[in-house]
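Researcher: I'm preparing a figure for a lab meeting and need a structural model of a single chain. I don't have an experimental structure, so a prediction will have to do for now. The sequence is pasted below. Please return the structure as tokens so I can convert it later.
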Amino acid sequence: MSDNKNMILIAEDDMDIIELLRLYLEKDGYEILVAMDGITAFGIIENNNPDLIICDIMMPGMNGYELIKKIRASYNNIPIIVLSAKNQDNDRILGLDMGADDYMTKPFNPLELVAHVKAALRRFYNLGGGNASQSIYQVGALRLDTDKMRFTKNDEEIILTPFEFKIMKLLMKNPGRVFTKVQIYEQINGEYFENDENALMVHMSKLRDKIEDDRNNPRYIKTIRGLGYKIDKE
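Model: Understood. Here is the structure written out token by token.
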């Protein structure tokens, strides 16, 4: 069992799934909070400040998409993993677009879910990690400050999700270097899971929407066809 005492909120209206998740996560040392609808879930977040949220999409009161949107309006950095029976690509894209960091579909392997939880928490707590002698990275008008967890363009703050922040740190720390999709996930996550490639494409698309003047003619994040991504040196 882990000595980890991170608090995880499970927002899910299926008690069988709640108990399955509780069994595996408590065995690994996590403290579990439960909500069976979105409204209750947000109240628990306000009162308990959990370290990670596992969120279903189809819930009464406030659905998962609405809950994620409301969370991101107030708690930008908290990791969110969607666990949903909605398994179409557009469902996954919408969940990530709303601000989820990860998206898993039902039926699921509980051990894989635990691995995703561990990876998400590592990303969250290591956002400011790396070389302690450097906390600020600058590429052109882009500036990333890992001490203040702040990303700006032309001195105007741009709000990034934790995963987006980590991608930008990796690319800005290594301008001009091409990273494959697998390398990006392995350096950020520690593991590469099935379907991560599609999720990464969504994250990259959202980043371009946020930082590029023209997403169809990007100045910063370049796709190297057949290889991966890089951020151009200025």
